[in-house]
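In the design runs reported in the main text, the only information available to the sequence generator was the tokenized backbone. The following block is the verbatim input for one such run; it is reproduced so that readers can re-run the procedure and compare outputs position by position.
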């Protein structure tokens, strides 16, 4: 039987929360639907009216998010990405939505989204052009922020094509300042660090968390398992730098959920959802909700995993073990008691040798030491293991490119008797580096 020995060295790294962006938004990672990964820059409404970037597409997705139960589990933002604009500003220098594809304008679309109880997100670029070549905000920062506010936009994703990465330290905060000055609270999603990393610069994360609600660290997701794996590896390999930056109001964004598209198997889709929850990632579905198969919809609507993602402590999880294709990821969550946390634990099997792998471990070896024990539950299989002590050995079977995700809740009368959260906020980070020992 495989055995794991893990030693977690606990070191508190506390970010001064006063230094983080405080616009009252994104207290938990934003959830919603975002067009890009699935619908890209399809502007051919003539030949492909149902799939082009258009008013109709966003109204349809809005309707389905509500009617098919996505809104009920927390998906809230309907977000446009690139390719919504006319190629030129108008004679007043204003951005104009494509007149054919968005014939009623953005304010009308925002009103529609709001009328369904949802929120409306838009896309622009800190540069001369968007990535697809539409007008960027450079030279019009104040003007465009005011325009978005006048359209009742709730969320702005600001990309970084056709811009100088060295100017972003000044430019992203400047646009954020203008968003703030409008008086309308808008989530601010930045691509600032990823473009600087591409340019070989070291992003200033203390400035980034001061100015952005979320930000992209790494490559755009593509519709493939290798893309998902590369993102998981990036977040694991760079976790000491990345993880401490997450917290209520400011999140790392590993990019969209591609669950339900063409590239991931059922197991791989479960893996993406589980690891994104461990990462405290924004949950932005990019999928055709008209045709998604029920088993993938069920993954996206898994309330127990969404609850992990949306945990109020907002502590991003980490990879605590990696050996021979088996990884273990852990995220501290509520309820807490004294210095103890509850945890979500994901066992990930990266092996491709075609048969499920057994992983056997005691809770204590995972760093779960509370003497009163933990109530352990499987979040996909609906298995309740009951209350286990730290010495109990658990054994899970993890499918190739699949995952088992457990929730381990501290089990104590005191936990429920006390005020569950307030005394622990704003703890940001409880892990230090973990040591990776091998299977014995
Ligand atoms: C944006 O356009 C201005 C004016 O043409 C130019 O000076 C600047 O270098 C351009 N910026 C980038 C990043 O290309
Ligand atoms: C603007 O910034 C101030 C100071 O951080 C904050 O209190 C306020 O809520 C912000 N307003 C908006 C609309 O974002
Ligand atoms: C990073 O940004 C902070 C806050 O804006 C600033 O005080 C600090 O000097 C910057 N650090 C570097 C290395 O530029």
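Verbatim output:
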């Amino acid at each position: 039987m495989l055995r794991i020995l893990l030693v977690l060295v606990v070191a508190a790294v506390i970010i001064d929360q006063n230094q983080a962006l405080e616009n009252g938004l994104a207290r938990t990672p934003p959830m919603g639907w975002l067009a890009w990964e699935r619908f890209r820059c399809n502007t051919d409404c003539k030949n492909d009216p149902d799939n082009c970037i258009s008013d109709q597409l966003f109204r349809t997705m809005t309707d389905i998010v509500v009617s098919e139960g996505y809104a009920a589990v927390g998906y809230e933002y309907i977000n446009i990405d690139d390719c919504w604009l006319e190629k030129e500003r108008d004679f007043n220098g204003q951005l104009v939505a494509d007149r054919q594809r968005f014939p009623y304008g953005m304010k009308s679309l925002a009103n529609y989204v709001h009328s369904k109880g949802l929120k409306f997100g838009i896309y622009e670029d800190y540069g001369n052009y968007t990535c697809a070549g539409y007008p960027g905000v450079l030279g019009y920062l104040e003007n465009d922020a005011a325009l978005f506010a006048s359209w009742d936009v709730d969320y702005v994703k600001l990309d970084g094509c056709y811009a100088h990465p060295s100017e972003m330290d000044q430019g992203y905060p400047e646009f954020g300042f203008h968003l703030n000055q409008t008086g309308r609270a808008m989530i601010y999603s930045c691509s600032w660090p990823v473009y600087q990393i591409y340019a070989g610069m070291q992003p200033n994360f203390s400035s980034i968390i001061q100015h952005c609600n979320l930000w992209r660290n790494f490559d755009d997701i593509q519709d493939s398992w290798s893309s998902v794996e590369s993102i998981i590896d990036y977040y694991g390999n760079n976790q000491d730098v990345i993880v401490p930056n997450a917290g209520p109001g400011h999140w790392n964004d590993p990019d969209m959920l591609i669950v339900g598209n063409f590239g991931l198997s059922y197991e791989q889709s479960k893996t993406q959802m589980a690891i994104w929850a461990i990462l405290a990632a924004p949950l932005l579905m990019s999928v055709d909700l008209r045709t998604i198969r029920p088993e993938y919809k069920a993954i996206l609507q898994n309330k127990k995993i969404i609850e992990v993602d949306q945990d109020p402590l907002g502590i991003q999880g980490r990879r605590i073990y990696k050996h021979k294709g088996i990884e273990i990821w852990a995220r501290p969550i509520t309820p807490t008691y004294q210095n103890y946390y509850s945890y979500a634990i994901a066992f990930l099997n990266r092996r491709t040798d075609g048969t499920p792998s057994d992983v056997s471990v005691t809770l204590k070896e995972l760093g779960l030491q509370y003497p009163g024990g933990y109530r352990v539950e499987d979040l996909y299989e609906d298995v309740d293991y009951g209350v286990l002590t730290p010495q109990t050995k658990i054994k899970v079977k993890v499918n190739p490119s699949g995952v088992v995700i457990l929730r381990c809740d501290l089990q104590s009368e005191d936990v429920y008797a006390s005020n569950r959260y307030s005394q622990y906020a704003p703890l940001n980070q409880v892990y230090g580096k973990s040591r990776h020992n091998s299977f014995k």
